[in-house]
Amino acid sequence: MAMEHRSSTFEFVTAEKVLSVLSYKLLIDAVERGLGLFSKSKSSSGQDANRSSVDQPVRTTVAVPNKGFLGCMPVYIEADELLVTKLVTFFPKNENVPTHNAVVAVFHANTGVPRAFLDGDTITTRRTAAASVVATKHLANGKPTVLAILGSGTQAASHYEAFCETFSSLKQVRVWNHKPERAKEFANKDERRHNCVACESVEDAVRGADVIVTVTSSSSPVLMAQWVKPGAHINGVGACRPEWAEIDPNLMRSAVVYVDSREGALQESGDVLLSKAEVYAEIGEVVNGTKTAHTDKTTVFKSLGMAVEDAVAAKIVLDELGL
Ligand SMILES: NC(=O)C1=CN([C@@H]2O[C@H](COP(=O)(O)OP(=O)(O)OC[C@H]3O[C@@H](n4cnc5c(N)ncnc54)[C@H](OP(=O)(O)O)[C@@H]3O)[C@@H](O)[C@H]2O)C=CC1
Ligand SMILES: O=C(O)C1=NCCCC1
């Protein structure tokens, strides 16, 4: 559907179209490259021939008191001539409508003229799981056989899909939710029941797990240090406000902590700020080979979500649809 915009036209890409082309196979490679470009951009000087320019400020947010917030996430990726911004809302108390809603706007980088508007929900859902997969590929200690997912909402579903598709070594996925019936519903879906079990407690879910994903809207820790197997890898995906946390501060302090953006984490992540944990590296630095993947230690990838991930996802959609 083309929309008139002054003398030019731009496309509106529906949720169905995004879903039809945004495969994890394409996305995981693209997100990995995007994370690398983002971290390389800041670590090299303007004189460096290998410099890769990514201009991505930390997300700005406006709050709707007692309800949620609107986040604005712009980025320019010079190497791909991508000028993109996502607008995303998070209203955690929503019932019967999604808690996250997003649109992604893509502009022509040479003129600034709008090029396309994309439904942003699948982009947000899938690129976040793709980022966790990338971190897990680099940081997990060997091939994971047991995955624990804390939370049973939209991100739980995308992480289940992306991890099962990527890690053929997985034998069991355990899911916990603060409302146990929802964990059971999640695990009993036809396409999941062959390898997915619902657990009554977080401890039962994470005991012995190789990889743990926290995808809750909790503002206080749900994952405690004493339950985690030494050497496990944790993807901390929720708790995107400076006063919120999902992970025990003791676990944050004792693990090797990786983030998507150091600057973002130091402004937005309660898990990092409240625990005063040291941030060892950006995951993009590991991708670039400039920081070590401490696979033998307990590792946390604290994900907050970045516009660079949305932009590379939007590029896949536009390329695949020939727009
Ligand atoms: N890092 C990133 O890039 C991104 C992070 N996120 C974050 O990931 C998290 C999950 O997002 P999403 O799956 O889309 O959200 P959903 O609303 O779909 O799911 C939220 C989950 O958290 C559970 N939950 C709600 N309140 C609590 C609580 N107090 N304690 C424990 N669990 C709770 C919900 O259970 P129930 O429904 O049964 O109440 C549900 O299982 C959120 O924090 C979100 O902001 C999201 C997008 C990107
Ligand atoms: O990156 C995103 O998109 C989001 N991150 C944190 C929660 C809101 C959406």
Automatic annotation (TrEMBL):
InterPro entries: NAD(P)-bd_dom_sf, ODC_Mu_crystall, ODC_N
Any one GO molecular function term: pyrroline-2-carboxylate reductase activity
Any matching Pfam family: OCD_Mu_crystall
Gene3D superfamilies tied to this protein: NAD(P)-binding Rossmann-like Domain, ornithine cyclodeaminase, domain 1
Catalysed reactions, semicolon-separated: (S)-cystathionine ketimine + NADH + 2 H(+) = (3R,5S)-2,3,5,6,7-pentahydro-1,4-thiazepine-3,5-dicarboxylate + NAD(+); L-proline + NADP(+) = 1-pyrroline-2-carboxylate + NADPH + H(+); Delta(2)-thiazoline-2-carboxylate + NADPH + 2 H(+) = L-thiazolidine-2-carboxylate + NADP(+); (3R)-1,4-thiomorpholine-3-carboxylate + NADP(+) = 3,4-dehydrothiomorpholine-3-carboxylate + NADPH + 2 H(+)
Any single GO CC term annotated in Swiss-Prot or TrEMBL for this entry: cytoplasm
EC assignment: 1.5.1.1, 1.5.1.25
Subunit structure: Homodimer. Binds the thyroid hormone triiodothyronine (T3); T3 binding inhibits enzymatic activity.
Family label: Belongs to the ornithine cyclodeaminase/mu-crystallin family.
Protein name per UniProt: Ketimine reductase mu-crystallin
Species assigned in the record: Elysia marginata
